[in-house]
Every structure is written in C-alpha cells, then in structure tokens.
Design brief:
Blueprint lengths: L6 E9 L5 E9 L2 E7 L2 E8 L4 H11 L9 E6 L7 E6 L1 H6 L1 H5 L13 H11 L9 E2 H10 L5 H6 L3 E6 L5 E7 L2 H14 L8 E4 L5 H9 L4 E4 L5 H10 L2 E5 L5 E5 L4 E2 L1
Parallel strand pairs: 3-6, 7-14, 10-11, 11-12
Antiparallel strand pairs: 1-2, 3-4, 5-6, 8-9, 8-10, 12-13
Helix pairs in contact: 1-7, 4-9, 7-8, 8-9
Length: 270
C-alpha cells in the first residue's frame, strides 16, 4: 500500500509581542472526507486524517452495529483505487439479510442523539450492548504508565499539535493497537478496527484516550468489551451514566497525581 502523507507544510506569518513579523513554515495535519459505503450504498461521510482507511471502515461498521464479526464481511476495499476517499463494505448474503432493516434506517445509536434525552439514549444502547460483568483488573500504576506513554505513540501530534491519540492494551499491559486522527471517534474506530480485522479484539482490556470521554467513545469501547477507559480529560455526565449502566470503569488524570475514577472502580486496584 502506498505511503499516505498526513501532513503538509504551510507558510504562515509569526507575529510577536515586540511588533515583528516573520514568515515561517509550519506543519499542518491533513483533513479529508472518507465516504463509507455498505452494499454499494452511501452510509456515512466522515472527516478524518488520511491513512488506515480499511481498518477505519471496519471499526466504524463494528461500532455502528453493522457487523459483529470479520466473517460478516464478504469484502472491504477502496473504491476506484487506494488513493480514493471511498471505502466499500460488502456483507455476506446471510448477514445482509439479518441487518437489512438496520441499514434501511441508515443510522445507529451514535447518530440518533438528536431529539431524544440522555436517559432514552442510555436505554437504547443498553438494548443492543450487554453490560460487562467480568474483566481483567488493571493496577493504578499500569494505567498511569499507559497514559503517560501515549505521547510517544503520537508522531503526528509532535509535528502538528492537532491530532488525538488512542492506545489499546491487553490484560498483560501489552500494547496491541494504537491510532491517531484529527477526530477522537476516528482514532478509536481505527484502533478497534485493526484488532477487529485481525480477530484480536477479545484481548482488548484497557483503552487510553488523549481527549475527554464522550458517550460515543463509551459506546464504541463497550461494543469491543473494553472495561476500562482512562483519558487525559474528564468524561461527560452522559458518558458516566452510560458507563455506569454498562459496568465500565471511567477515569482521567487527576490534577496533582493519580486518577479521578468516576464509576465502577472494581476493574482498578492499587
């Protein structure tokens, strides 16, 4: 697969407080649309950082409830060559028949927040995602080490200061997937999608985020049966409510040291 450039050099003017102006070049992150088609029909258009499109498409379809297993996919490929911004997902005939009504309504829970309240949203998600009742326990020191290691997995952020990063670890705190993107959701889809396509998703135990924790990210992690999410920033109230109902641990870095744990602390220990 050809190497995709995720950045461009852009000429800017640096204004200083002592009233000087200097022309310099800075590295900017690229942003382009990715169209995901299912059974030949447009399903979604996502603004994302170019790269890892096949994993991104697979992770997105998994998170949306379009597929449950790689075996549900007959083919996933670029449309009109690898340099295109279109990924087409073709389902097996049997699975297509199973979820045809789902495709007809063209949206899953992550896209149905308009017009319903948080309580209704949590109830809808609970109907499609089973709570986590058994999971490996992560030590506080391991969780802190993993989140402190995240910057080393973000080369694009070093260049551009404009991407989110995601890392996924197994129960032995071995890094098994990571991704960067301008979008938090895209980075999670890419990291989960890689494991999904490799049939390694069952090993996912700990999700590290460079961002805040929104309910959509909880939903994506819950689909992947990831019990613990640790992030740089705090979760939203809706994210905590959803994680509480699904038996998931949400935590973020504390101001001075350690973690703030917002719900279900049973999957963490000292």
């Amino acid at each position: 697969m050809p190497t995709v450039s995720n950045t461009t050099n852009h000429k800017i003017t640096h204004w200083t407080s002592n009233q000087t102006r200097t022309n310099i070049y800075q590295t900017l992150i690229r942003e382009e649309p990715l169209s995901i088609r299912v059974q030949g029909n447009p399903y979604a258009v996502i603004m994302r950082t170019p790269g890892n499109e096949i994993a991104h498409g697979a992770g997105f379809c998994f998170a949306e409830g379009i597929v449950d297993s790689p075996k549900d996919i007959n083919n996933i490929a670029f449309c009109d060559g690898e340099e295109s911004n279109v990924v087409t997902v073709t389902l097996t005939q049997k699975h297509h028949a199973k979820i045809n009504s789902h495709l007809n309504r063209k949206a899953y829970l992550s896209q149905t927040s308009c017009g319903i309240c948080g309580k209704e949203l949590v109830e809808d998600i609970q109907e499609t995602i089973a709570p986590i009742v058994n999971a490996p326990v992560i030590t506080l020191s391991d969780a802190l080490q993993c989140i402190n290691d995240l910057p080393a997995l973000q080369p694009l952020r070093d260049q551009t200061r404009a991407t989110h990063g995601v890392a996924i670890y197994d129960q032995d705190i071995k890094l098994i997937s990571s991704a960067e993107d301008i979008g938090r959701h895209n980075a999670v889809d890419k990291a989960i999608g890689k494991l999904f396509l490799e049939n390694q998703l069952s090993y996912a135990t700990l999700l590290i985020l460079s961002s805040r924790i929104s309910y959509e990210l909880v939903q994506k992690a819950a689909r992947a049966k990831i019990a613990v999410i640790v992030a740089y920033s705090r979760p939203t109230e809706l994210a905590v409510n959803l994680a509480t109902s699904l038996g998931m641990t949400l935590a973020c870095l504390a101001k001075d040291n350690g973690l703030f744990v917002f719900c279900n602390p049973q999957w963490l220990k000292f």
